[in-house]
Specification:
Helix content: 55-70%
Number of helices: 23
Largest sheet: none
InterPro entries: MMS22-like, MMS22L_N
Number of strands: 0
Protein name: Protein MMS22-like
GO cellular component, one term: nuclear replication fork
Domain Protein MMS22-like N-terminal: 9-308
Strand content: under 5%
Order of helices and strands: HHHHHHHHHHHHHHHHHHHHHHH
Structural class: mainly alpha
Length: 461
Amino acid sequence: GPIKSETKMLRTLIKSSLNSNPLSPSYSNEEEHMRFYLRCCYSLLQLWKNEKEGRHSDWVVCLWDYFCKALDQPFILKANSLEGFATVSKTPSKVAEKVRNLVDGEMEYNETSWSTFLRILGNVLKCYDKEWRILNSRIYIKFHSRRMSELSNIGLHNTTLLFLTLAWSKDMAVCTKLCQLLSDVQDNSSKKLVAVVQSLTATAYLLNLKNCHLGELTKTIEKKILSIAHQCSLTTDLTERREFGHSIVVLCNGLQEVMEASSDLTLGHNNLYSSALSNFCSQASVIEQGSILSFVDAGLSKVMKATMHLHSLADGTGLDILETLWRNFQGYIKSQLLSLTPPSNLGSICASLVLCATRLQFFKNTKPNISEASCLFLYIIENEIISGRVALQFICCLLKEEFSNEYLAKICEKYDEKLVGSLLMNMIESGSSEDVMVASEAIFSTPKLKDSYKIQLNDKL
């Protein structure tokens, strides 16, 4: 048929016209030509879209043979210039948005040749089932352990976009292959580590969107955390240590975004809170600790929201996340309670732990159970050594939650009196009149104390 002959003609034109060496000195000029060339190819594909004849893999493979040699290229228009270069954010949501647009969206005029190639690839795979086996095998064969380690951080980002385009357009199992390849990247470069963890968090975000289990991904992430910890312990250079530590910050910020966007907590999210991550806390800087605890806080916030609904409570939604967090992070959290400079969100995290444990207490063998929740509550409320700022934040976060009074009554019969005692003990030490006023307002809004203790508080003030 005419379409079949036209696809063959396009294949012949591509093979005869493409420069076999995309790394030539004139590459930046060639990129300008390639953008136009790829737009023409994409326009032809749109004309053929409803036709089932013709082997599109033949001409797409020719394009791949060109681009597989140029993965390290930034695909900018002019050498040593930012002209024509669109800075792409590498946060998980932005990468996922980019991939979805390549497969399902409209082509943008200023797209790079690489983006347009991915758009062509994604559309061919989405519309023509028979092309998957051929294209899949031709792409996979170009990647192995040595190749992945040779790629620059730009090359790793381009490779991630390639595999995520394959996954979104055809089969999310491609994400497992990507994780295996990223696992093979050597970890002696801080820039490559950042590129790898950005790729892993983007993969997690895309799996979330498809409601796929995180599976192999969590193992790869844990392996990378162990590698980062090892590199941080080896180096004696402060700048190098800071650069390796930055990859943990990027990882946790990305995973926090993944957790916040999750609509289903039964997909293996608990495995993201690994012992490798909690063990890293002992050697982490203040900034690194902050990013880890923000990720912990995001997980607890998700469990808190889930346990507000009766059907989620009945299913035990979030129970595995709570138990994993308690098992791996309780030691670190308790040690930070006694720190002279505790993390800024420590009180909030402890409040979430207490409330989540209390809400899920009717599941047998839950850790933390109701007794441990009570111990943590009393430890913070009654301990004079603990920072007043942490204690007041703990109180405010406890009481702002709906039905918190009912839950607190389960762990301490006279919880209201304990809260007043903690307020009086910490109001001066906290150093913030605003914290005191917020905490006192929350405490005296509890049912038993609306009309009690006001004289005692006014005397102290």
